[in-house]
Specification:
One of its GO terms (molecular function) is calmodulin-dependent protein phosphatase activity. By secondary structure, the protein is an alpha/beta fold. Helices cover about 40% and strands about 15% of the residues. The C terminus is likely disordered.
Length: about 500
């Protein structure tokens, strides 16, 4: 026991505490720009910023974005990064793999917020890097950099939990000014989602009015939401797209409606080839879709062996359940290098910033169910039943039938309570796994029958990348109008 206590004391002593006070003044600012190292160390330790300092960083970065064109024209050497999704501690690993931002040019393809629990830290740190290196660090807009999705998912909740709604509004205003696309060496088009039937030449991108909320249709929407036609990896079936791909979509050569996203389009090889040829480009580099390896080469040109579409995803172990690797692309002297990395440990938050009372309800429910089981298991003896008015004038056979029917009813009740008891016990013992699985479903409810299958059934539901993606697929759709409030309330609801 003493050894255990000493070991616990050593662990506590080695674990740094969360900063009690925000980093401010000359410790944070120098010549109107945030100091990167103090800010990094403070955010890494889960420290908060003063609201006025956070807003100052956001507004200054937003002003820089506003001055940039819709289509950035960049050259190598450069590191290209995909989705981050609020995974701040994996962003740290990403910057280690991609190179020091002080000496490395960066292009981020969007989706900085939502799903993870550290979106505020991601925004503050990337915006601070933008202020420090405005000519070498660039950020594009993703489909989650809009009010519709960030309120539907958890970024707005996170801002309110850690700061207030004013900070959320300031971040959204800055996101309105993010550029939409970039070219590298005039050969590669970089964008979050992909092509649009309304964009035939690069000049069409420059003509878009981007300083606003993302619309639900049109070329602006397509750049952020569209996907290439899914195709199977012939070398590894585990890396293939979903098996139940719509036949119409699978055979698309040009454009068709994107059913999986409930908006925008899916673009095929002919659409990509025509666009690349017309604009004298080699390939499209995009993000927007989780990949087991962190990247995927698609629509390979049979003559040159060069992929026409490259998908890059930089959020490892997406949503803490996908188990995927992440990657970034490094361009140097027109050579493309892929750097892969795995996830990093991170502090734990209750799902969707749930309060402790809501989280503890399964524990309370189990005790209540135990009480119900005790009540149901109690039964009257035969003498008590004989005194019942309905039994006095009955024959022996009738009494037997009544007692048998009552026994069956009692048995059914006992079985029902036993099932409830088993279910709530599972909710208590596997609370974290249950919460994770509920977070992947569109209504925050578990698939039918999963709880009764026990722990193995819960683990099996998200045991592979494909199963996790299938469970998460409804969350990849554009929410319908009016879904935001109901989604937020359901994500906090523990009722199955």
């Amino acid at each position: 026991l003493r050894d255990t206590q000493m070991a616990a004391q050593e662990i506590v002593a080695d674990t740094p505490g969360i900063p009690r006070h925000p980093v401010t003044g000359k410790d944070l600012w120098e010549r109107g720009k945030p100091k990167i190292l103090p800010l990094f160390n403070h955010l890494k330790a889960e420290g908060r910023l003063e609201l006025q300092d956070a807003i100052s960083i956001i507004r200054k970065a937003g002003a820089l974005f506003q001055k940039e064109p819709n289509l950035l024209r960049l050259n190598d050497p450069i590191t290209v990064c995909g989705d981050i999704h609020g995974q701040f501690y994996d962003l740290i690993r990403l910057l280690e793999a991609g190179g020091d931002p002080a000496t490395t040019q960066y292009l981020f393809l969007g989706d900085y917020v939502d799903r993870g629990c550290f979106s505020c830290e991601v925004v503050f740190y990337l915006f601070a890097l933008k202020l420090q290196y405005p000519k070498t660090l660039f950020m594009l807009r993703g489909n989650h950099e809009c009010r519709h999705l960030s309120a539907f998912f958890n970024f707005k909740d996170e801002c309110i939990y850690k700061y207030n709604e004013l900070l959320y509004d300031e971040v959204m205003n800055a996101f309105d000014h993010l550029p939409l696309a970039a070219t590298i060496n005039k050969k590669f088009l970089c964008v979050h989602g992909g092509l649009s039937p309304d964009i035939s030449v690069l000049k069409d991108i420059d003509l878009i009015d981007r300083h606003r909320e993302v619309p639900r249709q049109g070329p602006f929407c397509d750049l952020l939401w569209s996907d290439p036609v899914p195709e199977r990896d012939p070398n590894n079936s585990d890396d293939s797209d979903e098996e139940d791909v719509d036949e119409e979509i699978a055979n698309t050569k040009w454009f068709t409606y994107n059913k999986s996203r409930q908006c925008s389009h899916v673009y095929g090889v002919e659409a990509v080839s025509a666009f690349l040829k017309k604009n004298k480009l080699t390939a499209i580099i995009r993000a927007h879709e989780a990949q087991p390896k962190g990247y995927k080469m698609m629509m390979i040109n049979e003559k040159t062996g060069i992929p026409r579409v490259i998908t890059i995803f930089s959020a490892p172990n997406y949503c803490d359940v996908y188990g995927n690797k992440a990657a970034c692309l490094k361009f140097d002297n027109e050579l493309l290098n892929i750097r892969q990395f795995v996830c990093s440990p991170h502090p734990y938050y209750l799902p969707n910033f749930m309060d402790v009372f809501s989280w503890s309800l399964p524990f309370v429910a189990e005790k209540v169910t135990n009480m119900l089981a005790g009540v149901i298991n109690w039964s009257q003896d035969d003498d008590d039943l004989s005194d019942d008015d309905t039994m006095k004038d009955s024959s022996v056979e009738e009494k037997s039938d009544v007692l048998a029917s009552r026994g069956l009813v009692l048995k059914d009740k006992v079985l029902a309570i036993t099932k409830m008891l088993r279910m709530y016990k599972m909710l208590r013992t596997e609370n974290e796994l249950v919460s994770t699985l509920k977070g992947l479903t569109p209504d925050s409810k578990l698939p039918p029958g999963v709880l009764f299958g026990g722990k193995s059934s819960l683990e099996k539901a998200i045991s592979t990348f494909q199963k996790a993606r299938k469970a998460d697929a409804p969350n990849e759709r554009m929410p319908a109008d009016g879904d935001t409030k109901s989604k937020i309330s359901l994500r906090k609801d523990v009722v199955l």
